[in-house]
Prior knowledge:
Elements: H1 5-24, E1 28-37, E2 42-45, E3 48-52, E4 55-58, E5 63-71, E6 74-83, H2 93-98, E7 104-113, H3 121-143
Amino acid sequence: MIKNKKESVFVIKCVVFFLCVQTLVGCVERTITINSSPTGALAKINGQEVGKTPCTFEFDYFGEYDVVLKHPTHKTLITSEWATERLWDLPVLDLLFELTPVTFKTNLEWNFILEKNDTNKENLIRRANKMREETAKKETGKAGK
């Protein structure tokens, strides 16, 4: 309970000081930018769409991410990439950096080159025949067992 004017002034000063300190506290921003050649590929990270390349999205966790890039004129790329931490993202140090009045940014950039689809009809027929032969071999192998 506040008993006199001096105590109430002290409490108000403490609240104002606390609010001022909170505005000075920085943060850590983490983003990943995905680029592809050609641009415009639909990007999925761990099964969730994040946009068409080039695209940037925020992330919280470091480690391995599943990446799928789909483009109408190029082959779908299925791969994985690692998000690696910076000094200010390491355990214990990240808490100290969160309390400093500076914003630290981690922007990882992943670049991918997509292979063009083979639109040659002869190559398509050749690949289809090869797959048909491989499938027939597997079927005859199963029937013999």
